[in-house]
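User: I'll paste a sequence; please echo it back and then give the predicted structure.

Assistant: Echoing your sequence first, then the prediction.
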Amino acid sequence: MEVNFEAIQRVLDSKDTTTGGGTASSVAGAMASGLVGMVARLSIGKPGAASEAHYQELISSADKLKDLLFDGGSKDTSAFAEVQLAYRLPKSSEEKKTIRGQAIESAMTKAATVPLENAVNCARVQDLCRRIENNYNKNTVSDLKSAIYLSQAGFLGCVENVKINLPYLKNQKVVDGITKQLDSIMTKAPVFTDR
């Protein structure tokens, strides 16, 4: 947990150039998920509300996604740190160049797959928003809208962090696999309009 708060502090520090959009996007998704859980809790037992079981299911899913995305922020920070370390490896001989190249490929793969996983989880948060948006405690409308906006920002930010890392990968099979997964979640993610 402490490492996650450190990642947030690093995002907020404009002098820190190692923790950026991938971490911020994942944390945005975590905040969105926390808000969905809160809205669901505050909707239980209200007039015209859905069943308590419906909200409990949303709460359980939201809590799990919140934890995954909060951890995902620190994983993104760690992935970028691995990229930096790999690029610092020596290249003074052919053997060292090969080792360095393999380390870079491995680190860049992780730098693409971590935000991909976070994007998938942000899309799941968007789905929770969709599932509650027609039947919730209307006193929480600003909280639900904040969750919607944060989940969209988190999702789109994670997607951009996948895309920026793909050109650095040399293994076309890995690139194709990640691209296929990315295309799939892009077509399935709900799009919300302002109401």
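The CA atoms of residues 42 and 139 lie 9 Å apart. The chain is about 75% helix and 0% strand.
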